[in-house]
Amino acid sequence: VSPFDPSFLTRGALAAKEHLSSFAMDTQVQNKFSTGNTDHTLLMGIDYRRTRNDVWQALGLASSLNLVNPVYGNTAVQYFGYRSQVDRLEQTGLYLQDQAEWNHWLLTLCGRYDWSEADSVNRLNNNSASKQDDNEFTWRGGLNYLFDNG
């Protein structure tokens, strides 16, 4: 609703064409074994993801709509903002987890290393490109007590 005249509805316009492709996988192996009186569940894996998004957009304003006396089908659109770019993301992660159970205690330790690469090409600005590469090691741990009643 227009702040100047509440009987008019202000409208916007968006035209878009987009093509998104994505591939993802997560592969893991698990092994159960014992060391003395401690039972272990060891989990190792790799996950990979690749995404590409090719997008074109036009943003604009459409003519206002009179809420008291609406007239449909005569919408004038004025575009003023455009976007045309390709975004790409590639990420790989390796992880290892050990879950050790001893005398009602459960210890979980996990480590993960990730690499990622993202880039964007702006076709409206002389194909200017931006790129970012990241990598990081993360970990987590936990200690739980398993009661007899569950």
UniProtKB/TrEMBL annotation:
Keyword NADP: no
InterPro entries named in the record: Beta-barrel_TonB (IPR000531), Beta-barrel_TonB_sf (IPR036942), TonB-dep_rcpt-like (IPR039426)
Membrane-related topology note: Multi-pass membrane protein
Family matches, as Pfam families: TonB_dep_Rec_b-barrel
Domain TonB-dependent receptor-like beta-barrel: 25-149
UniProt signal peptide: none
Cell compartment(s), UniProt: Cell outer membrane
Main location (coarse class): membrane
Keywords: Cell outer membrane, Ion transport, Iron, Iron transport, Membrane, Receptor, Signal, TonB box, Transmembrane, Transmembrane beta strand, Transport
A GO MF term: siderophore uptake transmembrane transporter activity
GO cellular component: a single term: cell outer membrane
PANTHER family associated with the record: FERRICHROME IRON RECEPTOR-RELATED, FERRICHROME OUTER MEMBRANE TRANSPORTER_PHAGE RECEPTOR
Protein name, UniProt field: TonB-dependent siderophore receptor
